[in-house]
Amino acid sequence: MGKGRKQMNDDFAKLLKNLRISKGYSLKQLAERSNVTPSYLNRLERGERKRPTFSVLQHIAEGLDVDVNVLLGLDAKDTNEPLSLEEMFFTNEIEFEGKLLSADQKEVLLDILQEVLEADATSVEQLLDALKRIGELIVELKES
């Protein structure tokens, strides 16, 4: 398996998991919505299984209520539909300082963005807690 293929599988696995979580579905709930077994979905999310057949991919997309092109990683620039951060990160290769970001790095960056966007800055203590979590995520990013 070439390096590009591994990246694609990692990105697909992270995209699938992040989309499921962002929709608030457990594996069991997505399985019921998509008519795909929870164990197969779990293996896809862990990157243990390659991309599913197109028909299974369609069922998963329907269960997630997203266009199948999102899961295929096809460019959505020609549509007027906005992309979620998960779609943007995991359907595109992202380069920083001449190096492609790994799926793990993208996932940590998403976590950092989520912390920043959801930070409750109504008190100094809450802001310091959010900054501490962001700092921990930055350390995790540097280690990945």
Describe how the helices and strands are arranged.
Blueprint: H1 3-22, H2 27-34, H3 38-45, H4 54-64, H5 68-72, H6 85-90, E1 95-96, E2 99-100, H7 103-118, H8 124-143
Antiparallel strand pairs: 1-2
Helix pairs in contact: 2-3, 2-4, 7-8
Domain HTH cro/C1-type: 16-71
Keywords: DNA-binding
Pfam families: HTH_3
Q: Could you name the CATH topology of the largest domain?
A: 434 Repressor (Amino-terminal Domain)
Outline the low-pLDDT stretches. Answer: 1-8
Overall pLDDT: 82
Shape: globular
How many distinct beta strands? 2
Estimated radius of gyration: 16 Å
CATH superfamily of the largest domain: lambda repressor-like DNA-binding domains
The secondary-structure element order is HHHHHHEEHH
Strand order of the largest sheet: 1-2
What percentage of the residues does DSSP assign to strands (E)? under 5%
- The CATH top-level class label of the largest domain: Mainly Alpha
Pfam families: HTH_3
Organism: Ureibacillus suwonensis
Protein name: Helix-turn-helix domain-containing protein
InterPro entries: Cro/C1-type_HTH, Lambda_DNA-bd_dom_sf, TransReg_Diox_bact_type
